[in-house]
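Cont'd.
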Amino acid sequence: MIREQLVAPSPTDLTAFLLRHTRTRDCLVQVAGLAEVTYQGRAASTADVGSYLVLLKRDGSLQIHAPKGVKPMNWQPRTDEITARVEDGQCVLLASRRSRVEQVRVVFLEAQLAQALELSEEAGFVLSGSEAQMQDALARHPDLIEPGLRVLNRELLVESGGIDLYAQDAVSQLARYVASVQRMVGSVVVRGILAAPSITTPARAQLEGRGFEFREVQALPAVVSASTQPGLFEA
Amino acid sequence: MIREQLVAPSPTDLTAFLLRHTRTRDCLVQVAGLAEVTYQGRAASTADVGSYLVLLKRDGSLQIHAPKGVKPMNWQPRTDEITARVEDGQCVLLASRRSRVEQVRVVFLEAQLAQALELSEEAGFVLSGSEAQMQDALARHPDLIEPGLRVLNRELLVESGGIDLYAQDAVSQLARYVASVQRMVGSVVVRGILAAPSITTPARAQLEGRGFEFREVQALPAVVSASTQPGLFEA
DNA sequence: TAGTCAATGTCGGGG
DNA sequence: CCCCGACGTTGACTA
């Protein structure tokens, strides 16, 4: 799985290494070492000389990691062209895009490690808990909001945006929705319940000020202990 | 700069390695190999067995990279606790957060490579082209919007939000601003100019419908050729 | 291809 | 600690 590894390669060797693997694009390429990084495109950035970790993936994406944070210091999502060359005795890596004109330039002052790894094809990956899934699950199992709740008109509920948990103005949206339903049903009492995994303090105050309720729905089973209510996405 | 490197370590060795380095948190730790990853927290996800690259940074952040994309397949921004242990003869890495309860679990079925790299302290990093810088630059050099433009009252211009290039409703905001200035200056003609790096088609239509103008301001010097106008952030 | 919108958004600043 | 807002947001979906 380690296709190739160079320890402290010379600029020439590193350049050749990069060219070899970026041409085939069949490996995940990494370089760690002292470098200087600049970016020009939608914005511009400069990173002083420091030790960074550079990742080149098979899809042509590039990312340069500083010692902290999940987010790379610099990146390029999908490059049209990646090249390496020797400039002034140093290996320079250029990654650029044409559609949106931008470029990342890495000057390696001292590479400590370069490696090419074979990663197998993408394996199956399933994510649950997105808004779409949540809407669907709540519409199917409204008794997760409160036992006994039934959906009288699912189309109305979903289409009118009655379930909109992430909207910034969820409270006023709820108010509008409640008002419109109230008009339709006449004298029957209409409650407004905002069901969400969480709520901010100001939002809660506003909600209760309007006489509405908040109901926490756990989208997923708790990590640590058994959940007190069934998770939405278990089955 | 390579503090330690293990090639195809046993589960026991890998566990010890991970414990050693996560305890000190002074290195960037990498493991590449066959693994299975699950996440539970704000959402939940499962990744089938595949070969991934795991990165552990000094700040406790974790990311697991699949062969494609800038975005990690799984991640954890800043963990409260990272532990490793042997379970059923396999090394298991657990990264969890307490404030927001969530956890990433990596089961290494076959590690190919584990390494601990010393990255120097964060080096200087400067990004230019952000909204704040742009506001400032435009206030200082209004003639970038149109030669001859002068700022009559910078306080008013900046404080009233007169320059607000990223607001979703920039057009209506501009309208309000123009109206308020018009009231103040009386009979003098007031033009509304939206100066931004780009504009969407619908926004432009709305803008021109109200009799306002759009002026493209290049925030930065072009990558390829000499820019036709001086960049905002050059000096 | 361009516009729109969710995201395990991440990250940093301010109360 | 929580709330708020920017971001080179990215990425997926849709007209």
